Give the backbone structure.
Amino acid sequence: MPEKIISVRHLSKKFGSFQAIHDVSFSVYKGDVFGFLGPNGAGKSTSIRCLNSLIKPDSGTIEIFGESITTHRESILGRVGSIIEKPDFYKYLSAYRNLEIFSRISGKPSSKQEIYKMLDFVGLGGRERDKFAGFSHGMKQRLGIAQTLLHNPDLIILDEPTTGLDPQGIIDIRNLILRLKNEQNKTVLLSSHNLAEIELICNRMVIINKGRSMVEGKVSELMNGENLILRLEASPLSQAKKVLLTWKPELQWENVGDTALQFPIEKSEIPLLTKFLVDQKIEIYSLEAKRTLEDYFIKIINQ
Amino acid sequence: MILFNSLYNEIIKIALKPRSYLGLAAITVLVGVIQFALKADGMSIISFVTSSFEQTLSFEGNVLNGNLVAFIILQMLLVQIPLLVALVTGDLVSGEAAMGTIRMLATKPISRIQLLLSKFIAGGIYTLVVILWMGVMSVVVGKLLFGTGDMMVLNSDGLVILQEADVNWRYLGGFAVAFLALFTVSSLSICLSCFTDNSIGPIVATMSIILLFTIIGTLDVRVFDPIKPYLFTTHMAAWRSFFEDPLPLSAISRSIAVLVVHNVVLISVSLYTFHHKDIQS
């Protein structure tokens, strides 16, 4: 079992009469890219703020690197890099000066060369002396990532890091996270509304809704228990439909244009169906099994 | 070490914020205007003040000298300077909350106590710079423009003549007590700053409190008499005591004690509040 990096147990927090989170529990292991999912208002930000000791929970425990955030706050935060909600910097200061300020209190102050290198790494090379106020949203996000990584943390907490980025920016951040995991074995906790992104890069996840953790586990295992949607493009389609009813009389499908249809199927049935269609002389042009996190996510939060 | 680093950050932030120079610019302009006015028509003002003494005293030499000019300037301006200090210090915590940077700072491995202490110290350094600039502009520039000489001070007990050689240390003492009074304003504004995420609110609230306390202090109403000695505004003019002869040491000590107690209470309340605060900005 890999080393447990984050252990959150029965976390609860109330703001006045509003119960922001109630009994949230999850664990993140070394090397995980851990997806933190939930609809707006589910309690993601409150949980992440508790992890960073910005908010003190009413009950529950948080251990990071095996130590309580309550008693070992400074030593833990020295090994954590975070972007919470959006990166906010001093508008009247340059990108370089902003990084220098946060670096100075990060526990591992960086040299001028290291700051320049980091700015270059996130694609802000040449903009070191530009004021933060003049940065586009994407540039602000990149500067936020630079601030997060500058002191070489072991745990990186990214709250919606791709919000507002253009497609290339999203791909860059995604690749960066994968590089951090694969090349440096960093642990990443990634909160995102972009379910496709979570599906692409996370190995484990938790879904929280209405302040409670609903499911937690490996993305592949959680999704394996789910039915697939099979999209079949075949000819002749009318004959294919008849064959499908012979194979499974209760089967219900949906037409996709004039040449394809889709229907739910269990993973183990796919090879049998393929053989059956071929045996019945149906020409198969394409067969695509879909299982999206989006479907799974909606199912969980509607429970 | 991290406290020193954080203090360095706070000083950099104050030094690079354009608003920080408003106070210094305002002092330069105000002192300049007063000095110009005194240079142009100062003797008529002095004649008006000394006319009531002319039957018993004769004034010779440079009466309107740098020492007197500096005293007049300080008397006129040390009431306004708190606003200039609060403009910067009232923003130190709430301004960060409004910008969202307090969230970024609070996720760093520095304790909130150290973070806030560094802001108090930086606020104190800024206050010191303001006071020193005030001193340079009023005393140093005043002496350069008006020359030196014995100092004539008119206070509630009558006219006090201080020898030229006896003035400089009094200015030093006066500025030290004025610094303590202004640092109390700085502490008050930072304290108020810990309770809100609005950057203007603490500045306005600080000035409102100073106005309220000043009005209470000047109202000749008995019901306020018991609290007047404990209001920090009562002691903001304690610097003037250094220009009395003999020096009212007990009054000066009492003022210093009241101001120190105010600072200790305000800093303690701020540290407690900030340490226990949920940062939601």
